[in-house]
């Protein structure tokens, strides 16, 4: 799903402008049941369909994962099913274990939860997952991450916790003048820190096109508070752009809120109570996918991204809770994947089967080309949903 900003509207420093006086809804409010769905029949996509950019021509997630991993379609379907169950178990266990958790990851679909004591290991085993004892809890690693973020650094630097190695991973540009400062700050943490070399410029995935001051973005998820309907997309897309249309000129509605940098999500009100409320995402290959809810991503999870430029592509979650110091500012708690995305993909959905995980934010691209080792960072969609007190508009 692609959106274009209305350039006839004056540029404003914030996204506070809306529709005619009295028409703008109040901030969504009230507790909502995340499992609720409306059930109305609605169109499959917004803004047309383009058959391009899909992973190896695979029309769906199972086909794309099978091609990427060199496995049969049946094996890919089984992997996706196992991962879908285990990611929710991981969310529950890491929350329940608290300080005893070192984080969780998926290995060939199997859930591994790292823990710092035998009592926590017993709880993990009893729940049906594999427990692995580690030296450092996730909270300790996150404290190290924050300490390193406080030291002087270059653009194109990232920090994140790798639960598989029980380390903080710092990715630095090869020739950064402040790299020595980062390495010096890390010395006191010893083997708890690992350094990698980043490649490419980390940039927001906004597209640039003639006559469009902001460039193009993609729709993430449609959402509702059961009175009004909304679009959730990247905050760097909505920031400063008060109104939106489709490429064919159809009106969508006004920006209500933007959060960027630090976070990267924004809210667009769809004019009227039921206009274009779809509960589906466009895969850009003449198909769409219904989204029924959201979850917190886990390292190793198979995921797909959908965007107006690269279309439908799949890959894996590499890390979560990653801080990204990119050209557009610093964003935190990002999901890092190995999916190639480009300008124009910003705001597009990160998902697996019928579950939403994130919004396309930044990528280490070389201009209009994918990096040889692609990395994309996605804003967790759960934070936007919680902030705006809405639910993903999911069809049953």
Please explain how this structure is put together.
With 396 residues, this protein is an alpha+beta fold. It folds into two domains: 1-13 and 32-98 and 204-396, Trypsin-like serine proteases (Thrombin, subunit H, Beta Barrel), CATH 2.40.10; 138-198, GMP Synthetase, Chain A, domain 3 (2-Layer Sandwich). Helices cover 19% and strands 33% of the residues. It contains seven helices and 24 strands. The strands form four sheets. An eight-stranded antiparallel beta sheet has the order 9-1-12-13-14-11-10-24. A six-stranded antiparallel barrel has the order 18-19-20-23-22-21. It has a three-stranded mixed beta sheet with strand order 2-3-4. The longest helix is centred in the N-terminal third of the chain and has 25 residues, at 73-97. Residues 138-186 form the Peptidase S1A alpha-lytic prodomain domain.
Task: Briefly say what this structure is.
The protein has 396 residues and is an alpha+beta fold.
Structural class computed from helices and strand pairing: alpha+beta
Q: In whole angstroms, how far apart are the ends?
A: 21 Å
- The CATH topology name of the largest domain reads Thrombin, subunit H
The CATH superfamily label of the largest domain reads: Trypsin-like serine proteases
State the shape.
globular
Strand content: 25-35%
CATH class (first level) name of the largest domain: Mainly Beta
Summed up, the domain count is 2
- Overall pLDDT: 83
Oligomer: single chain
Given the structure, what is the number of helices? 7
CATH architectural arrangement of the largest domain: Beta Barrel
Low-confidence sequence ranges: 5-57, 208-215
Helix content: 10-25%
Rg, Cα atoms, Å: 21 Å
Largest sheet: 8 strands, antiparallel
Domain Peptidase S1: 226-367
InterPro entries: Pept_S1_alpha_lytic, Pept_S1A_streptogrisin, Peptidase_S1_PA, Peptidase_S1_PA_chymotrypsin, Streptogrisin_prodomain, Trypsin_dom
Pfam families: Pro_Al_protease (PF02983), Trypsin (PF00089)
Protein name: S1 family peptidase
């Amino acid at each position: 799903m692609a959106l274009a900003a209305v350039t006839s509207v004056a540029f404003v420093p914030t996204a506070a402008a809306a529709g005619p006086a009295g028409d703008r809804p109040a901030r969504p409010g009230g507790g909502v049941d995340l499992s609720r769905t409306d059930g109305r029949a609605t169109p499959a996509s917004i803004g047309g369909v383009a058959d391009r950019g899909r992973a190896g021509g695979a029309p769906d997630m199972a086909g794309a994962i099978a091609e990427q991993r060199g496995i049969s379609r049946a094996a890919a379907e089984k992997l996706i099913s196992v991962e879908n169950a285990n990611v929710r178990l991981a969310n529950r266990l890491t929350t329940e274990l608290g300080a005893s958790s070192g984080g969780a990851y998926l290995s060939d679909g199997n859930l591994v939860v790292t823990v710092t004591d035998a009592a926590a290991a017993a709880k993990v085993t009893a729940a049906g997952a594999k427990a692995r004892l580690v030296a450092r809890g996730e909270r300790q690693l996150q404290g190290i991450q924050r300490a390193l973020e406080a030291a002087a650094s270059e653009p194109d630097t990232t920090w994140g916790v790798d639960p598989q190695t029980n380390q903080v991973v710092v990715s630095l540009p090869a020739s950064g003048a402040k790299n020595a400062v980062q390495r010096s700050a890390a010395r006191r943490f010893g083997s708890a820190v690992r350094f990698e070399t980043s490649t490419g410029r980390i940039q927001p995935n906004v597209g640039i096109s003639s006559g469009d001051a902001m460039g193009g973005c993609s729709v993430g998820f449609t959402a509702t508070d059961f009175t009004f309907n909304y679009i959730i997309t990247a905050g760097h897309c909505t920031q400063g752009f008060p109104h939106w249309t489709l490429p064919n000129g159809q009106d969508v509605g006004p920006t209500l809120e933007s959060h960027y940098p630090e976070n990267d999500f924004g809210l667009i009100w769809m004019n009227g109570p039921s206009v274009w409320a779809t509960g589906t995402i466009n895969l850009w290959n003449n198909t769409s996918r219904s989204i029924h809810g959201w979850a917190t991503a886990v390292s190793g999870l198979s995921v797909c991204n959908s965007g107006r430029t690269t279309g439908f592509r799949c890959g894996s979650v590499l890390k979560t809770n990653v801080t990204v110091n990119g050209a557009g500012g610093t964003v935190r708690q990002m999901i890092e994947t190995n999916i190639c995305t480009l300008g124009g993909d910003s705001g597009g959905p990160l998902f697996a089967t019928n579950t939403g995980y994130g919004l396309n934010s930044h990528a280490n691209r070389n201009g209009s080309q994918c990096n040889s080792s692609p990395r994309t960072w996605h804003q967790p969609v759960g934070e936007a949903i919680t902030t705006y007190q809405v639910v993903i508009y999911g069809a049953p």
